[in-house]
Amino acid sequence: MKLNGQMILAWVEKHFTNYKIRKGGQEIVMPNPWGDSGSHYNVSLVEKEIKAGDGKRKGFWVHDWRPGHQGHDGSFIKLVQEYKGITFFEALKEISGVKVDPKDWLRENRNEHEEEDLPEEIELKLPDGARRIDIDDGTAARRVAFGYLSYRGITTEEVKRYFIHYDNTTVIFPYVEFGMVVYWQSREIVNKRFMFPSENIGVVKSDFLYGFDFVEPGGPLIIVESIIDSINIGFGAVAMGGAILSAKQVRKALALNPGYVILGADNDKPDAHGIKAGLSSIWANYNVLKPYFDGKIFYSVPPDPHKDWNDMKKAGLDPRQAVQDLMKPATLKSLIALRRSR
To answer: Which fold has domain 131-341?
Structure first.
């Protein structure tokens, strides 16, 4: 299934009235969907090159004229995805009217390095007693769970989007791929203890990337350590659940065929040997990804005094914008300089 300009124009006509067609019918100027009358978007109705890091890709280009967003060109699918708060493949259906099998689509648009088909995942049940946090059941436990997530900068919309559940004093984060729960991680609010499904099911946390369904294939892929950080950053961000990518997580990243990769490391305090774990993870993950994305790997580290992206969110800052603004090319030379500077 391939998008065309007629589909994009029809979507804009359905949702907005005050748009203009220019450049001989090759471009739309549409209002900011989020209601800021002082900014707008330019949307191409023919495929154009979209800048992706140091590379380019073909697509229906969108230029964001919101203050502070200029220079971050993206695709129309991503705009719809963010406006509707839906997955990439839901946005594809929203625009085209056609339901696409995600695995078939990814296979047809596979990365040149990806040789195997996507693994067949088994849908997993959440723990007994798990309840959705976005549905107010009037319980004190739900209020505590929701309050914890609010403190971490997670909105009601994000709670619903990421299908977050709770059970008593535990918050449960489902891993969703192609609309199926394939894994989960829970966190005790009080004692900070993490729990996972039994290893007897044949899969472990390092087999998955949290946030997989909310990445635009072909667009940027932002890789961070924690689930909370990935939610705070939003669309395009995935969590490893650790510091180093596993072989299976690399395979998942390849399936998404990103235009470029950003390693969003933590800004840890140095250990007894003066080593910062977050910076060490940049080195390790750069080496893991270099055979596949050489020249398309970047890194981004929160500035002091913030220890991670969630720390920035709690301080009232925009971690997604910070990731983009602080992004630097990851090369052997730049990473050596980074190590010396820190």
So the answer is: Dna Topoisomerase Vi A Subunit; Chain: A, domain 2 (3.40.1360)
